[in-house]
Amino acid sequence: MLFNKLHNNSLATIIAVPFIVILLWLRLFTVDMANITALDNPAMPIWNTFILPWLGHSQFIAALTSLLLVVLSGLSVNRMVTKHGLLHAQSMITLLIFSLMVGAFLSVQKLNPVLFFLLFFTHGLERILNQTNGQIVNRCFDAAFLIGIGSLIYIKGVFIFPFILVAMGILRTLNIQNILGAFAGLILPFIFSLTYFFVFDRLPWFLLEIEENILANPGQYNHTLFSKLFMTSIILLLALSLLSTVRSLPLRKVKVRYYFRIFIWTLLLTTGILLTPFYSMEMLPIAAIGASVLLASFFERITNKKTKEVLFALFVALMVSGQFFLY
User: Fold this and answer.
1) How far apart are CA 8 and CA 12, in angstroms?
2) Are 70 and 100 in contact (CB under 8 A)?
3) In terms of DSSP H, where are the helices of the chain?
4) Are 74 and 92 in contact (CB under 8 A)?
5) DSSP assignment, residue 303?
6) Is the confidence at residue 35, as pLDDT, over 60?
C-alpha cells in the first residue's frame, strides 16, 4: 500500500515526503565521498568566484544546498503536475519520484553547476506552462531569461533553449513575436555579463572561459555490473511509462495532452543529449523532470492494486539501492 499511502494530499504525506527526501541526502551530510565521484563538471566564472567559495567548501553547507536545490526544483515540477491536472489525485508523489531519481547517483547528487541550472530550468518551464492570452510573450521572455541566468553557471544549458521553442510549438504559441521575446530573454543575462567583463577589461578571458566550458567533457561514467542492471531497469520502466502515457493521451483533455507532450519531449531531448560526447551523467537531473512525471502517471494508471504496489516498491528499492552501490 506504499503508493496509495504516498499518493494523497493528507498532512501526514506532506510531512513524510520531504522527510524521505532528506534521508536520501544523509550520505552527503555524513560521509565525504567527493573524491570518488565520477564527474568533474565544467563551471563558469560565477561558480568558481562566488558559489563554490560560499557554498562548496563546507561539506554540510554543500550538502544542504544540493538538497534545497533538488527540493525546490522538484516542488516546481510537482506544482506543474498538480495545477494542470496531469494526475487524477493531488499529492507530492512526483516530487518523491524526482528526488529518488536525482539522488541515486552520488556524482549527480553532490553540489554541482547542473543543479543550479536545474532550478532555473524547472521554473522557466513552469512559466511557459502558465501562459495566458495577454501574457504569452512575457512568459516566453521570463522562461528564456531564467535559462540564460542558469547558463551563466552551467553554459551547456544554453543548448537546452531550443526545448523552449518546442514547448511553444506544442502549446500553439510559436510565432515571431514570442520567438523574439524568448531570444531576448536568453541573451539578456549574457549581455549584462559581457558588458561587465568589457568594463573591467576581461572580455577575452570571459569568452575563452565560455569556449572551454562548451568543449569540456565532464568525464564518462565507468559502469559496473550493478549500474548496468540499474540503468537497464530504469530504461525498461520508462519505456513502459512512455507507451502507457501515449496510449492514454486520446482519453485526456486537449490541454492535458499538450502538457504531457512537453514532458515527453523533455525526456526524449535530454536522453538524446546524453548520447553526445559533450554531455554525461550530469544531465540526469534534467532528464528526471520528464521521467518523474511519466512514472507518476504510469503508476497511477495501473488498475491492479497489487501490481501497482509491487512495481512501485521495486522502483523505490532500486533507487535506494543506488545509495549504496552507485557513485
Assistant:
1) 9
2) no
3) 2-6, 11-24, 26-30, 45-46, 59-83, 93-102, 106-109, 113-129, 136-151, 161-170, 176-199, 203-215, 225-248, 254-274, 284-301, 305-325
4) no
5) -
6) no
202 φ, ψ (degrees, to nearest 5) = -130, 20
**Residue 322, CB-side half-sphere exposure with 13 Å CA sphere:** 27
Euclidean distance between CA atoms 88 and 58, whole angstroms: 42
- Amino acid in position 288: A
Per-residue pLDDT, averaged over 88-110, amounts to 90
pLDDT for the residue numbered 116 = 94
Contact of 189 with 195, CB cutoff 8 Å: no
What is the value of pTM for the model shown?
Answer: 0.93
How many other β-carbons are positioned within 10 Å of the β-carbon of residue 144?
Answer: 27
- Distance, in Å, from the CA atom of 257 to the CA atom of 137, rounded to the nearest integer, reads 22
C-alpha pair distances (Å), 98 with each of 78, 92, 94, 171: 9, 10, 6, 24
Angstrom distance (rounded) from CA 316 to CA 294 = 15
pLDDT recorded at residue 37:
55
pLDDT tops 80 at residue 165: yes
Average pLDDT, the chain: 88
Taking alpha carbons only, the member of 129, 11, 89 closest to residue 297 is: 89
What does the DSSP assignment read for 22-43? HHHTHHHHH---GGG-S-----
Give the domain range for residue 152: 2-325
Could you give the 3-state DSSP secondary structure of residue 158? helix
Percent of the chain with pLDDT over 70: 94
DSSP secondary structure code for residue 109 in this structure: H
The tally of domains found in the chain comes to: 1
The 3-state DSSP class for residue 57 equals coil
Tell me the percentage of the chain whose pLDDT exceeds 90. 54
